[in-house]
Amino acid sequence: MGVEVSDAMALAPAPGARTAHRREFEANKLRKRLRRQVGEAIADYAMIEAGDRVMVCVSGGKDSYGLLDILVSLRQRSPVPFDIIAVNLDQKHPGFPAEVLPGYLAGRNIAYRIEEQDTYSVVKRVIPEGGTMCSLCSRLRRGVLYRVAGEVGATKIALGHHRDDILATFFLNLFFGGKLKTMPPKLTSDDGKHIVIRPLAYVRERDLARYADAMAFPIIPCDLCGSQENLQRKQVGAMLREWEKKYPGRVETIFNALGKVVTTHLLDRQLQDFSAIRAAGLPLPDGDIAFDDDPCTTQPLPAMIRLEPFDER
Ligand code: SF4
């Protein structure tokens, strides 16, 4: 017996329910991808070991909410037992909604500590009116977080930097610092006492933004102080977004290249003892190819990596 049109309409979900269902489906798909990428990064860089107490620094921004959420869900499935404690620094910015994070963390049953320290007044006192406060603000924040890490017995400090932060930092160092370096997925802190990890190293910023939206995280903007984001970082971010739009794949290629460094093909005398180079008479796959161009520069460039002068707007 066929289904009459009116019956079929009664059986089909209402448009509102359909949209909600679609959103739920998309959020699940995204959650799976984020879990996979974070899991891979943790494994690739040996970020978390059995018995670790991971202090997740939560600012109230989309990235740190995403980091915490994904780590919590990975911990539930992980064969490696580890602990999580969320830490937020309340820097006493005017208008900081101090109740938001404790409410969220308690609601999710996540152990947390809110550290109150008025670094805002220090920054205001030291930086002249109109100056960019972010670098001093971050430095002070780092000092407090290192201290708290010791107090809560953290063995790892997890930060919410993602793939695009890593790339932007690489280009900032290249363009303005004259160095080939970026934020690594795992490194000892500059005071030598802690291990800092970046489990979102493989995650794209736009996925974190979509995830925050889907999860309706109670976002606290990091501009309560009215300070502006570093202008150079903004420019580099815009450059990367433009590349991503105009040349799909280029940004991915650059990110992958950061994990395939051929130290013998650079000029750093710290990495290579040039005075010790001897010809051993055996073919070397990575040896010099004299007058030939490198094979990867002689192949026709696909559109995605065709170079154009950098527009420094
Ligand atoms: S925007 Fe404000 S709170 Fe955020 S890092 Fe800069 S100075 Fe600090």
Report the oligomer. Answer: single chain
How many distinct helices? 11
Derived from helix and strand composition plus strand pairing, the structural class reads alpha/beta
Bound molecules: iron/sulfur cluster
Specify the overall morphology: globular
Largest sheet report: 6 strands, mixed
What's the end-to-end separation, in Å? Answer: 67 Å
- Return Rg in Å: 24 Å
Order of adjacent strands in the largest pleated sheet: 3-2-1-4-6-5
Binned, the helix content reads 40-55%
Please count the beta strands (DSSP E, at least 2 residues each). Answer: 6
Percent of residues in beta strands?
5-15%
Poorly predicted ranges: 1-9, 303-313
Mean pLDDT: 89
Order of helices and strands: HHEHEHEHHEHEEHHHH
Describe this structure in words.
The chain has helices at 5-11, 15-44, 62-77, 100-107, 119-126, 134-151, 163-177, 205-215, 231-246, 250-257, 295-298; strands at residues 53-57, 83-90, 112-116, 156-158, 186-188, 195-197. The chain is α/β, with parallel strands linked by helices. A 6-stranded mixed beta sheet has the order 3-2-1-4-6-5, sandwiched between helices. It binds iron/sulfur cluster (SF4). Residues 133-134, 137-138, 222-223, 225, 227 line the site of iron/sulfur cluster.
